[in-house]
Amino acid sequence: MFRAVCALCALPALAAPMFSAEPAGKIVRPAAGSWLRAGKIDIAAAAPGGRLLLDGVALDAEEPFPNVFRAPIDAAPGEHVITLEWPGGKREARIHVGPSAPQGFREFVAHPPAAAACASCHALSRRGRFRFSGGCFGCHAKAEFAKVHSHEPHVLESCGLCHNAHGSTAAKHLLLSREQACKQCHN
Ligand code: HEC
Ligand code: HEC
Ligand code: HEC
Ligand code: HEC
C-alpha cells in the first residue's frame, strides 16, 4: 500500500503551477545539448523583464503573455548559444544544428509537432498569473491515459510534473525516470 496520507499532504504543493513559485528565468525549449537536424527552432522562454539572444545578438521575440517569450528562428548549421537575460540573472543553452553534432548532444524532438499557439495550452489566471490551462486531450486519447499512468487524468492533471510539453531530448518528453516521476507522490 502506498503512503496515501503523505501523498495527499504533498498534493497542493505539487499541483501549484511551477512558474508562480519560480522567480528565475527559464529557457523552456530547446533544451541545452539539443541537436536539431534543420535550422528551424521555436525558442520558448520566460523571465521577468527578460530578453532573448542568439549568439550574442538580441532576437526580436514575441511576448504572447507578460514576461513569456517566443522566438521562431532559422539558424545556420553549426553550434549556437541561446541566452536568456533578465535583471539579476542569465541562462544559456548550447545547441547544434545540422550534421556533426558534438558528443553528448541529443536529438531534440519538438512537441506538439506543428507550431501550436502558446495560448492553446496557456492562459492567465484571474489574478493574472501565467498558467497551464490544459488541452492535451484534444490530441491524445483520454481513454489510453490510465493504462499508461495507473491514474485517471484528474490525479495527474499537472502534466508538467513529469513531461516537458514543449519538446525535449528525452523519450516521451519525460523530465524524470518513470520511477522518480511516480515517487514525487509515492515514497
Ligand atoms: C501542448 C501544450 C503546451 C503548449 C502548446 C505550450 N505549453 Fe508551455 N507549458 C505546458 C505545460 C504542461 C507546462 C507545465 C505547467 C506546470 O507544470 O504548471 C508548461 C509550462 C510553461 C512555462 C513555465 C515553465 C516552468 O518550468 O516554469 C513556460 C514559460 C511556458 N510553458 C511557455 C510556453 C510558450 C512560450 C509557449 C508557446 C511557444 C508554450 N509554453 C506552449 C504546455 C504547453
Ligand atoms: C496539437 C496536438 C497535440 C497536443 C495539444 C498535445 N500533443 Fe502530445 N503529441 C502529439 C503528437 C502528434 C505526438 C507524436 C506522435 C505520438 O507519439 O502520438 C505527441 C507526442 C507526445 C508524447 C510522446 C509520446 C511518445 O510515444 O513518444 C508525450 C509524452 C505527449 N505528447 C504529451 C503531451 C502532453 C502532456 C500534452 C499537453 C500538455 C500534449 N501532449 C498535447 C500531439 C499533441
Ligand atoms: C507522474 C508523472 C506523470 C504525469 C504527471 C503525467 N505523465 Fe504522461 N507519462 C509518464 C510516464 C512515466 C510515461 C511513460 C510510460 C512508459 O513509457 O511506460 C508517460 C507517457 C505519456 C504519453 C505517451 C503514451 C504512450 O503511449 O507511451 C503521453 C501521451 C502522456 N504521458 C501524456 C500525459 C498527459 C496528457 C499528462 C497530463 C494530463 C501526463 N502525461 C501526466 C508520467 C507522467
Ligand atoms: C500527484 C501525486 C501522484 C503522482 C505523481 C502519482 N500518484 Fe499514484 N496515487 C496518488 C494518490 C493520492 C493515491 C491514493 C489515492 C488514490 O488511490 O487515488 C495514489 C494511488 C496509486 C495507486 C493505487 C494504490 C492503491 O492501493 O489503490 C497506484 C497503483 C499508483 N498510485 C500508481 C502510480 C504510478 C505508477 C505513478 C507514476 C506514473 C503515480 N502513481 C504517480 C497520487 C499520485
Would you kindly provide a written description of the structure presented here, covering whatever features stand out?
This protein has 187 residues and is of the alpha+beta class. It has one domain (4-183): Sandwich (Immunoglobulin-like), CATH 2.60.40.10. The chain has four helices and 14 strands. The strands form four sheets. The chain has a six-stranded mixed β-sheet, with no helix packed on it. The longest helix has 12 residues, at 4-15. The protein is globular and about 45 Å long. The protein starts with a helix and ends with a helix. Residues 1-22 have low confidence and may be disordered. The structure holds heme C (4 copies).
List the helices and strands and how they pair.
Layout: H1 4-15, H2 18-21, E1 26-29, E2 34-36, E3 40-46, E4 51-54, E5 57-58, E6 62-65, E7 68-74, E8 78-86, E9 89-97, E10 106-107, E11 109-110, E12 122-124, E13 130-132, H3 142-149, E14 167-168, H4 178-183
Parallel strand pairs: 2-9, 2-10
Antiparallel strand pairs: 1-3, 3-7, 4-5, 4-8, 6-7, 8-9, 11-14, 12-13
The chain binds heme C (4 copies).
One heme C binds next to α1 and α4.
Number of distinct beta strands: 14
Query: How far do the termini sit from each other?
Result: 11 Å
Globular, elongated, flat, extended or rod-shaped: what is the shape? globular
For the biggest sheet, the summary is: 6 strands, mixed
Named once each, the bound ligands are: heme C
Strand order of the largest sheet: 5-4-8-9-2-10
Structure classification: alpha+beta
CATH architecture: Sandwich
Order of helices and strands: HHEEEEEEEEEEEEEHEH
Q: Rounded to an integer, what's the Rg over CA atoms?
A: 18 Å
